[in-house]
Amino acid sequence: KQEVTQIPAALSVPEGENLVLNCSFTDSAIYNLQWFRQDPGKGLTSLLLIQSSQREQTSGRLNASLDKSSGRSTLYIAASQPGDSATYLCAENAGGTSYGKLTFGQGTILTVHP
Amino acid sequence: ETGVTQSPTHLIKTRGQQVTLRCSSQSGHNTVSWYQQALGQGPQFIFQYYREEENGRGNFPPRFSGLQFPNYSSELNVNALELDDSALYLCASSSGRGPGYEQYFGPGTRLTVT
Questions:
Q1: Residues A33 and A91: beta-carbon distance below 8 Å
Q2: Is B58's CB within 8 Å of A101's CB?
Q3: What's phi and psi for B64, nearest 5 deg?
Q4: A49 touches B: beta carbon within 8 Å
Q5: Three-class SS of residue A96?
């Protein structure tokens, strides 16, 4: 059974701080891993997608890494801003099927205070 | 290019009733996946439709059913509603059915069952 775990469940930091969100997955045959942002009551916005053949992806102040051997991914946010406050979800796509089923973690609720 | 849209935005139903949720896929996409997100949890995969056929299903009972139309829009139907069906329902579209195709999410439909 595929399981995705995110730590911590919640995080509160002052503006300007660099931070790391963690994601663990159990399926070593991962196809790709994706990080999403979700604002309260809203849909999902894709931040970064890392293919299994890649080690990391970067977009602006965001950097995501993938370590298949340890079953871990991290999302690094540099110079955090109050506008970064949201829930961050990671999702693995394990492949092995004819369809793209994403298995999500429970998310990390991030609060960046001025 | 129009993104993924869902209707209605919010819905309140009574236990035992039936509900239909709708999703319009992004232009050029032929695959729609549906997810259920309970409060405080990550989304869970319900099923995927590819070219009007169900292409994969998660651990949901048969009272959750779907349709995909020739224009690739989709409906999620839930019969005999239960209180635990209260959740945010998300649809995602992609340009193909396999794990290598990135899924783009809509804003969701918030269903409340009383």
A1: yes
A2: yes
A3: -95, 115
A4: yes
A5: coil
A110 touches B: beta carbon within 8 Å: no
Most distant CA pair in chain A, distance: 46
Confidence check: pLDDT of B104 > 70: yes
Whole-number Å distance between alpha carbons of A88 and A85: 9
- The SS3 call for residue B83 is helix
| pLDDT tens digits, one per residue of B40-89 | 999 999 999 999 999 899 999 999 999 999 999 999 999 999 999 999 99
Question: In B, residues 27-46, which contact A (CB 8 Å cutoff)?
Answer: 31, 33, 35, 40-45
**Contact across the interface for A106 and B100, Cβ inside 8 Å:** no
Q: Give yes or no for a contact between A101 and A31, defined as CB atoms under 8 angstroms apart.
A: no
Report whether B66 contacts B53 (CB < 8 A).
Answer: no
- As to burial, measured by CB atoms within 10 angstroms (0-12 exposed, 13-18 middle, 19+ buried), residue A28 is exposed
